[in-house]
Specification:
77 residues; 0% strand; single chain
């Protein structure tokens, strides 16, 4: 993940921290840096496993229910 504008640095840090990708820590990575990161992610099964864990967590999160409950607490419905 690359970028320094808006929230890109924060997203890149979260991607790296969660283990689902690599923070290239620059707004303009070189083609060689991108290629090396792609090769590393494809070769290391830990990235795939982390992505699977994140996918499961997102699937189990029930965001619509969470939003509805927050609105009920906020608005007294």
């Amino acid at each position: 993940v690359a970028g320094e504008t808006s929230d890109k640095a924060e997203v890149a840090a979260r991607v790296d921290f969660s283990g689902v990708g690599i923070d290239l820590a620059t707004a303009a990575p070189s083609p060689a840096a991108i290629g090396a990161a792609v090769d590393r992610v494809r070769a290391d099964d830990r990235y795939r496993a982390a992505a699977a864990r994140l996918r499961s967590a997102i699937a189990a999160s029930a965001p619509i229910d969470a939003i509805a409950n927050a609105l009920k607490r906020c608005c007294g419905a």
